[in-house]
Design goal:
Layout (H helix, E strand, L loop, with lengths): L11 E2 L1 H9 L4 E4 L3 H6 L1 E2 L5 E2 L3 E4 L2 E4 L3 H8 L5 E5 L4 H12 L4 E5 L2 H7 L4 E2 L10
Pfam families: Rhodanese
GO molecular function: catalytic activity
Protein name: Rhodanese/Cell cycle control phosphatase superfamily protein
Length: 134
């Protein structure tokens, strides 16, 4: 007897496949790292979203209980998303939450931002540069 799993299947793609889908404009990138990590450097796409799966707190990182609601405020369940984080762990958890919530077209980006950088793919930063006093 075959058992039916209620767990959605997380499909993980590598950074090259992610880059191709993003460049074609077929998918939007959802970075689930902290805001600080995102500002230091992220996948270079104008419409990349940053909605942290984990938040920095005095006791360390804690799960963002508003994550799903924040995603739903900016995306609909038919949107095509590639979810990434630093190494691919948080994004797998986030992808699972989105799939369970009914999102239909979501990929996890394996290796995360670290793999993206290692493969010399385009990076953007939002880090503020100090103003020079004249």
């Amino acid at each position: 007897m075959r058992s039916c799993s209620s767990e959605p299947e997380i499909i993980t793609i590598d950074v090259h496949k992610a880059n191709l889908l993003l460049r074609k404009g077929e998918y939007r990138f959802l970075d689930v790292r902290t805001t600080e990590e995102f500002m230091e450097g992220h996948v270079d796409f104008d419409d990349a979203l940053n909605i942290p799966y984990m938040l920095n707190a005095p006791q360390g990182r804690v799960r963002n209980n508003k994550f799903l609601g924040q995603v739903l405020s900016l995306c609909n369940k038919d949107d095509q998303l590639i979810v990434g984080c630093q190494s691919g762990v948080r994004s797998a958890y986030a992808t699972n939450i989105l799939l369970k919530a009914g999102f239909k077209h979501v990929y996890n980006m394996g290796g995360g931002y670290l793999a993206w950088v290692e493969n010399d793919l385009p990076v953007a930063t939002l880090a503020l540069t100090p103003k020079l006093e004249l």
